[in-house]
Design a protein that fits this description.
four-stranded antiparallel beta sheet, single chain, globular, alpha+beta
Length: about 160
Amino acid sequence: MRLGFLALILACLPAAPVVGQEPTPYGPPITLEQALRLVAAAEAEAKKHSWPVAITVVDSGGHLVAFHRLDNTQLGSVEVSLEKARTSAMFRRPTKYFEDAIAAGGAGLRSLRSPVMPIEGGLPVILDGKIIGAIGVSGVKPVEDGQVARAGLAALESPRP
């Protein structure tokens, strides 16, 4: 009985990183200035395509740092963007990882029992090799949410004006 219960618990956990690969460590939490740069760059990408989205940035612990909702964004996207950001921060990977795992079926379906948002649009924010937070975007197609999130990340990679 105990062995069956343990197997059930293990089956519900998300997949571990590749054997021999250390997970990206957590660093100090993202600053408000950094979070606002992410939001501004993501907003610019969304506006360029007239995509009404919600943009959320959380710190390395998954706590809200910055949020922005463009006009006419569906209200359900507010919570979805937050959950995408939290998933990326807490599990140290893009939310697309979980989307792909579920789409593949088999063992990937165990992600359905995890507290994750398995839809593209959430990305960890990595600076100096450490996760300092995450960005989550929701409001349009998942691939478009991901495009907006990547544009936000690019703001930390480029020099400040």
